[in-house]
From TrEMBL:
Species the sequence originates in: Sphingobium baderi LL03
Designated name of the protein: AMP-dependent synthetase
Family: Belongs to the ATP-dependent AMP-binding enzyme family.
UniProt keyword annotations, A-Z: Ligase
SUPFAM superfamilies: Acetyl-CoA synthetase-like
Length: 496
């Protein structure tokens, strides 16, 4: 059986088994399977071919999950679209991608998105969670006027069936990564990485639109793992779920640990947790020590990327017990079957043990070629990997990688902005946040900092929008006329 066939078989067995809860509503496997099948039926009836690309504006909600599972189980092509973009940005992505069909929540079918569907001839499927328990209502349905695909042309994908996920920028500028469906076995491997014993209930906080959430979605389905889905991380909702489900392990990003500490969640409320598994950004030794001392929970860190279809480096409980003190600050060791090396940042030559350079990873299930990241690391004599920084200047905001040049580009597009500079400032909760300094053109009405942030929202995702904007008479520059980022940093520190 193929991976998709296995997934389909698992989805359709044990229909009475409770499998997912969302905002207090429990879904059985039978309900999930029926919703997944309904998605495919709508596409088939509308003549959307097997190889035609289908986009989903992804949110952490059950109908989005079942739509994605249905597409994967039936070996259809799926492209995730970030819901945290502005409507205009989503519309532009739809026009460029030429989807035969797009699936989205009713709230995401804004007028710009609807107009893009009309212009492209895209079939439009709406998801309405408010109709789930209303007799005779259809929570998954076509939008009137867009219930048939137009003439196209629509994008068709060659080769094996699979999915496209926008990368977070670990190996360079964010881009869509194509994964044949068979590679999703790595999603299951990633979930099980470094974990011992039976599969525990999961509290999902990772966004479905990224590789972490996709791995969690697919692995939970394949493993029959009961999952509490959080649309967004919320300390109170998360802590209540922990108290109710009593998982021995949870997963998340460093910002989650910081928020839990800041909220002073009672230790007894989350006493079932033995391990906090995390990734997306390095956890500082100080935060790890504070979290462990406060809650008695062991922090098991990991590293992965969209390009790897999951985790490639991780701690395990056994490694933690032996090396906790001596390897504090490490991301862990390579998982079985994964090979790591460090490359010179200029020549690309392989470097010896202990040297600092770009991390390169060999994942046989993905490719026989080494994949270079823009993460700067060292690997010690015991194989432990230590993160030293980013070669592309990316700002790690609560697990999201923000490229400064992308934010600069958005600010420069404002008619009053002459130039801009973006840096990352430390943040206790999120690790770092992007902030921007701008120089305005003369003779044009000056926008306020909030005006500039609103303008940035038109083309950026929420994590990319600068937390603060300073409007300067002129940007400080070096002798080579480049913006002096050190001077910009000092300005923000003085303005704090």
């Amino acid at each position: 059986m193929t991976f998709s066939q296995q997934l389909s078989a698992i989805l359709h067995r044990d229909p009475a088994m409770p499998i997912v809860e969302y905002k207090g509503r429990v879904f059985t496997k039978g309900e999930y399977a029926a919703l997944a099948d309904r998605t495919i039926a709508l596409l088939d009836e509308a003549g959307v071919g097997q190889r035609m690309s289908v986009g989903i504006i992804v949110r952490n909600r059950p109908l989005h999950a079942t739509a994605m599972l249905g597409l994967i189980a039936q070996e259809r092509w799926l492209t995730s679209i970030y819901a945290i973009q502005s409507p205009d940005a989503i519309a532009q992505e739809m026009l460029e991608s030429r989807f035969a069909a797009v699936i989205a929540d009713v709230e995401d079918w804004s007028e710009p998105v609807l107009e893009a569907a009309r212009a492209s001839g895209t079939l439009a499927i709406k998801l309405d969670h408010g109709l789930l328990d209303q007799p005779g209502a259809e929570p998954l349905d076509l939008i009137p006027g867009l219930e048939r695909k137009g003439e196209g042309p629509f994008r068709e994908v060659e080769g094996e069936p699979g999915l496209e996920i926008l990368s977070s920028g670990t190996t360079g500028k964010p881009k869509r990564i194509v994964f044949p469906t068979r590679m999703l076995v790595r999603a299951v491997d990633s979930v099980l990485a470094g974990r011992d014993g039976p599969v525990e209930p999961d509290i999902l906080c990772w966004p479905y639109g990224g590789i972490g959430g996709m791995c969690g979605l697919v692995a939970s389905a394949m493993l029959d793992r009961y999952t509490c889905v959080l649309e967004k991380f919320n300390v109170a909702e998360w802590a209540d779920a922990v108290e109710r489900l009593k998982p021995k392990l949870v997963s998340g990003v460093p910002a989650m640990a910081r928020m839990i500490l800041d909220a002073r969640v009672p230790k007894e409320k989350i006493a079932s947790i033995q391990y906090f598994y995390g990734g997306s950004a390095p956890m500082t030794p100080e935060l790890q020590a504070e979290f462990e001392a406060t809650y008695g929970i062991d922090v098991i860190w990991a590293y992965g990327a969209t390009e790897f279809c999951g985790t490639v480096i991780s701690w395990s409980p056994a490694l933690y017990k032996e090396y906790r003190q001596s390897k504090l600050g490490s991301m862990g060791k390579a998982l079985p079957g994964i090979t790591l090396r460090v490359a010179d940042m200029e020549t690309g030559a392989e470097l010896p043990v202990g040297a600092e350079g770009f991390l390169e990873v060999l994942v046989p299930q993905i490719s026989d070629q080494w994949i270079r990241t823009t993460d700067i690391v060292t690997i010690d004599e015991d194989g432990f990997v230590f993160h030293k920084g980013r070669g592309d200047g990316a700002i790690l905001r609560g697990g999201y990688k923000v490229l400064p040049e992308k934010v600069v580009e958005a600010l420069r597009s404002h008619p009053a902005v002459l130039d801009a500079a973006v840096i990352g400032l430390p943040d206790d909760r999120l690790g770092a946040v992007p902030v921007a300094a701008v120089e305005l053109k003369s003779g044009i009405e000056a926008p306020s900092p909030e005006d500039l942030r609103d303008h940035a929202r038109l083309s950026l995702t929420t994590p990319q929008v600068p937390a603060k904007v300073l409007v300067l008479p002129t940007l400080p520059r070096t002798t080579s006329m480049k913006v002096d980022l050190k001077a910009v940093t000092q300005m923000f520190l003085q303005d704090a």
